[in-house]
Protein 1
Amino acid sequence: MNNIEEGRTRVILKENGVLNVSAAYNIYVLLPAKWGKICGVWIKRAASSDYPGGYSIDDTWSHSKFQKGFKVRIVKYDETEMEFDLIGIHAAIANAFRRLLLAEVPSMAIEKVFVYNNTSLLQDEVLAHRLGLIPLKADPRLFEYRQPDDEDGTEQDTLEYELKIKCTWNPNAPKDSTNPDDLYKDHKVYTKHIKWLPVGGQGDIYKEKDVGPVQDDILISKLRPGHELDLKLHAVKGIGKDHAKFSPVATAFYRLLPEITLTRDVEGEQAERLQKCFSPGVIGLEETPYGKKKAKVLDARYDTCSRNVYRYDDLKDAVRMGRVRDHFICDVLICSSSWKRQYFHRPASFAPSACVHTHVKTDSNATSVFR
């Protein structure tokens, strides 16, 4: 790979700094020195070249080239987490998907809590806040947004729940026991105690297992004998931009794909030491024909870019570390499991409306459009 290609496609990690960071010029444009320090790490100042023709190469954007180079690769997919790769895309687009997941994709959450009785140690407002953060299984695509002037809601836009529980003494508790689980009954309030109350004809359409909390063992509060909760809960459809409880994901982040290249053969004790400098599974050892252990790169994906290898003078020149500019490893922790299969293509469907909203904000001289 020549220097021009490397500058366009790679970020190189050095012992005390990072090379090929085009955005560094925007940070240190006023500094006369070639290096600047951010978060304790020295970064080389470089004029931004992230634009068509920046390297005297015709790399203007075109739909055909984007369609040919862009790929989505699913790496991990289960009930609570999804890991996938976005390949051949700009950081701004990858970040747009992340922000859309957090703020624009709707979900159902508890919006109103009607407190009829609360003698627990939790104040009403604290209890209501905890209930609002409980993820629900309900599919938001089956519901409408509740109108601002609608106080009661309808079966098309509201799910109603009940939380009614009272803590009592356990008459059969062992005499010498001090364990609260033995002494009291119903002293821990879990999400399994939340019961769904169908509104209108909802009972003929949904089942309680499809609209209840995602997990039954989320602890809401602790009670003691005489404490009682009697609540009615209303869940509505919303988006994370309005309140974090409507965000369908717990976390959504991405990182650039690490790239590790061995510049020379590393054998024997050096190979074992090199392996310990990286995360498990990054560097492996293989037997050579003459009986020595030789280091090789197994999977750079799991490297945390700690750069521990630069602690050893005899290994500094053996490794070249970098990151691929247009390969993003995205990790999403899913809360609302009922429609997780829609997570990736639904943000794309919200992107045009978000762009229009941004355009309108720009035309109206908004002070803050991007965050």
Protein 2
Amino acid sequence: MDGMHLISLVLAQHLDKLPFKYKGENSCHLVRMSQKKYHLGLMENFELNPILLNRINGEFRCLKRTDLIKAMANCLPQETIRAGCQVLSIELDPVTKYPQILLSNGSILQAKVVIGCDGVNSIVANMVALHPTKLLRFSTCVARGFTKYQNGHPFLSEFVMMSRGQVQLGRIPMTDKLVYWFVTRLSTCQDSIISKDSALIRRSLMESMEGFPVHAMDMIRNCKLSSLHLTDLKYRPPWDLLLNRFSKGTIVVAGDAMHATGPFVAQGGSASIEDAIVLARCLAEKMNNKGAVVERNVVEEAFDKYAKERRMRIFWLSLNTFLVGKRLDTKSGIMRFLVLAIMFVLFRDPDGHSHYNCGTL
């Protein structure tokens, strides 16, 4: 419980310690590029549509997740984080009614409070009835990687998205020499083999991206093989988030364990940070002036308040991501039209999800 308080405080108070190195403009441009075909000739090109992002803090940055984790870890007390321990099972003690956690190293933790942030295949989520069997897969998979330009890259401070058919490329500079990118494409029966070999991933991407601009192809060709990852995309259906429980006694879930979504609106990490801030705030409000000993019912009330506050936010975020993913998935023109119509009605502002304010600690 104290750990979640501290992680949230780190996020709020120690952002100056994060290793931001790229000095771009205060606000970046989002550039969407779509292929434009000339049917009377042989030439094909990409049409650029720059859109200025109006963000609350006037910032649009990209950083490595490991850098964020290290920055937070360095601000926590020693021995707060225990590495190399995977949760195998969790159950309630029949006498105390508090959770018991069995770890992969054979040890058993007798916990007063459990906050499950153990990802898509969450053991804790299964415990509180968010069953992993309800996780579905998009027909789209995603590859991510970094490309380092020894003499500096030529790109502006822009988040660029290019699409050609059902293949989409996103690109954003991290420093003056390092660029992060991702590619989404339809999954194939060979992906389980391809995902285990970085060279095969790169070859697969080059084949999928045939017809993209030369600079985009060069970026993939010259990427750091050690950074390449190809994964399928699991998600929890949005309607499940309206009905399922997020807590049970003094056990609660957050992050992907709570709301696994596709990456199509790039808000998964942000939503997890929101979870931490809201959960810390709910606990702090309920624990205020309660003394050193906190009763079980106080924690349960805090968790119930947290779940109530987060439910509709993550539902709408999940629905938005679900629709974008289905638009990329489907080969049917009629289905794509229906998805676009629903998105136009419900999500007229394509960047509206990024304007949400979860409040302060």
Protein 3
Amino acid sequence: MGRIPLRMGRIPLRMGPSVLKILVWGWIVFVTGFILGVLVATSPQNFDNFDLFGLRAKEEARLEDERLFFRASMVPKTEDFPSNRVPKVAFMFLTRGPLPLSPLWERFFNGHEKLYSVYVHTRPGYELNVSKSSAFYGREIPSQDAQWGSITLTDAEKRLLANALLDSSNERFVLLSESCIPVYDFPTIYKYLTGSVHSFVQSYDSLGSQGRGRFSRSMLPHMKITDWRKGSQWFEMNRFLAINIISDTKYYPLMRRFCKPTCYPDEHYLPTYLNILFPNLNAERTVTWVDWSRGGGHPATYGGKDISEEFIQGIRKSSTTCSYNSQQTSVCYLFARKFTPSALEPLLKLASKVMNF
């Protein structure tokens, strides 16, 4: 029997998207395994330092936060202190870098060193360029990256609170940014805050898409849509509430898991938490003035050409009144934002005449 010749033509190789995906992931796994193998073979120390996708660094940062929050949750409450204790106000600055308005704050703080503390949360590794005599010198706390609109911004706020709570003298805690200014002198602000029976966290029920529309039903049954509140990020609170917020292991995990970027946790966590647990301890308003009249996702910004005596006085004495210790007052705002670096010189010129420092 003779051989039958075989003809083999070209067989076209066609791969669908699923096949390509398998090949790509197979290649990634191979390369990763190869790198790990080389590291282990050359030096075990290299393997210890290897951090795939930064997961180890993120886990270490999370554990560091947990240790900090635990320490802060164990600090004494106000009622545990002796009656002759002199309370301090903790000024907590959440910033992306430098503090261009720091000369104004230096003047504000001058002469009151025993009545305040300063804490600065800036981007990791950044050091403020200030003199050793500055109130801001060496006041940076261990920080992590904080992104606008994400839970990392609220993490940074809690980090500031926790560090400030470790000083048992701190009784009031105010959150500020690099664009904030004081509109009254230190004695006035100190008396206003330490004399208040309420904390100042803006909290209101917003029925639209920017309020209740951000609520996730996945938060049920611990959070209800009728509990959901919105408010300004820039808060002021007393020691009792600060300790409770740092100790919260029920509501904050829900916010982290279900309040995604379009939800903006910094606008909802504190107002909602206080509304659920401590509504009677909150004045439901902020003491930081900001101008949203121009619309958009960010408030109005003011530079040097905008600064005048009339402008600052308009912030200090609002046309509407507010409640302070159950009494009506026209002094509703102690701080204001947002001010650019160009506003510094005009503000310094007006400070002694208008703001009394």
Protein 4
Amino acid sequence: MSILPPSRGKIVFGLGIAYLLVQFLYVSYYNETRRFDNLITTTTQEYFTSTNPVPITHLNLSGIQTMFYNNVQTKETKDKNLLTLCPQTPPDLNGTVRLLVPAQETLEEVAQQLSWLRVLEGGQQMPLDCQARYKIAIIVPYRNRLDNLCTFLLNIHPFLTKQQLDYTIFIVEQFDDGLFNRAMLMNVGFTEALKLHDFDCFFFHDVDLIPENDRNIYSCPDQPRHMSVAIDKFHYRLPYLDIFGGVIGMNRTHFQMVNGFSNIFWGWGGEDDDMALRVKAHNLNITRYHPSVARYHMLPHAKQIANPKRYEKLYSGRKRFKTDGLNNLEYQVKALKQLPLFTYLLVDLTSTRS
């Protein structure tokens, strides 16, 4: 058995160590590069002009537009000057709501199922035997959720009618197939709604949330109100204390005071928290009904990819409150139709995409 001289042994040992070090650096560099490449790819894909795996299908309104002339009831209300104000708390509220399911997921079918209601042009409803205390707009940002929309309309009309409100439902659909901008659609809904009626307050409403308690009254709030306090998907608990999303109500003055929603939140997440910060920055308070009243069922829907830049935009939000919102809103209305169950807005937001 031969033994290497001490000097040669040190050289061989040093070469071995050097070889292992080079291998380690190569593997580490290769894996880190791949990991970084993956991050770049994910981010780039999320900000492509088209972000949807399937083509966007806009609402097909041909059938329901035909029904407008055949099935909308034309019963006239009494002279408003002769009516007394509706009570602050509507009668016959029992604290429960039965979830209604469309026989078929088409707007025509929902209109047929709601034919017993007196719904006016554009999805407006008002009480017949008293004068509503509030004139409210329900603003619903929309894209590719026909099943949710059908269930929403079938349930929300009877719910709001029972509360003796003068309300109109607005469905605001994004025209392009780029990243969804929920907040900007709600700004558009607010702006366009005021061109049609002099609304007192606005409820910004996700299409997948159905109220479960008829005592959850959509009355004009003195302070911004978070409506969807207890959602079944979250075990009827607030996910976090400052949440201000899902369904919120604000009067016209307060919404204009905070300059509406931010327009820069493309993709899922962040816009609700930004609005909460705007409310607090203007010394307003977020109010809530008791969780036993403000209960909602969330309809099933595909999970959306979160916007990775939402926290960055939240942190810089205070600098933009006065310049980012209603006062810099840009869009193009591609269609505006007053239908039996709702007023429909199709809007193009692409001119403002960053």
